[in-house]
Amino acid sequence: MHSLTHWPAVSDDDWNALREAARRHQQAGATWTDDARGHSIGLVFFNPSLRTRCSMELAAHQLGAHATTLTPGSGTWDFAWNDGAVMDGSEAEHVRDAFGVLSRYYDALGVRVFASLSDREQDESDALIRMVADAADGPVVNLESARYHPCQALGDATALAAHFGKEDLGGKRFVLSWAPHPKPLPRAVPHSALLMAARCGMDVTVARPDGFALDDGVMEQARTYADAQGASLTESADPDAAFSDAEVIYAKSWAGNAIYDSPGAEADQRAARGDWKITADRMARTASGAAFMHCLPVRRNVVVDDAVLDGPQSIHLPQAECRLHAQKAILEHVFA
Q1: Predicted model pTM
Q2: How far does the chain reach from its first CA to its final CA, in angstroms?
Q3: 20-59 pLDDT, tens per residue?
Q4: Under a CB-based contact definition with an 8 Å cutoff, are residues 175 and 244 in contact?
Q5: H or E segment to which residue 128 belongs
Q6: I need a labelling partner for 153 at 20 to 30 A (CA). Which of 169, 173, 240, 316 fits?
Q7: Is residue 2 one of the residues assigned to a domain?
């Protein structure tokens, strides 16, 4: 069996196989099989979920496997994380014990644990998902960690293949566009969307205001992928220019670089960038047949106007549907 915790660690062969399997499921539709009968997965969500939880549960059932979903603190104990913790407070169980037990019940585990946006070292090292993987005695699927969201990335690649009607996305002009939001958000999705697009050979532009650069290490990895595919990776602080002739607009909000040291300053910077909202006029700059994407949930008329989401360019609902097909491919990979 195979873990899927840190997206860049997935080999090129496995990435291509996962893409092919997800696309096969997408083309077949919502079929039910016994391919994973006798297997089980425990899904632990430390943070809210709609698409990831529902698609993973349903994917398991459609493959004939059993899935159990747990929400720590709601039906289970609160968990302690720190090594050496003196557990005399509300936490009744340590993650090392909890995941040590769960991995003895289930063939695989899936875990969602967001970035703290308060502890830079913990977030940048993806410490919490790594602790879970270390405690578990079996494969672990990353359902979104501080740094990556591989399930979303595979679903996005599947949606793009379906939209363009071909598996080879090389040369497509992909814009990952920062967008306004009332709250600071983690970077797992934009990191994974960037890596996905570069790995698929698309020419990528990261459009973002000053002070909102993505992680240096992730940018370096994306450049490595782009170079290997003969593609390009650029950055732009001008959204109008970035949208010009783009074939894919992927909108996503993320916290600014000041979030760890000066959250008040980060909030002010974010609030001042309402002009980055995705509008119909801005989308009109894109190429004919261009697609608008968003991972959801999305704040309408803050991140993107209704006219875009409800218009012919938006594929955010087929994109979300592809999460189910991607989860089936991931489960097949994990249970193999």
Answers
A1: 0.96
A2: 5
A3: 999 999 999 989 999 999 999 999 999 999 999 999 999 9
A4: no
A5: helix 127-135
A6: 240
A7: no
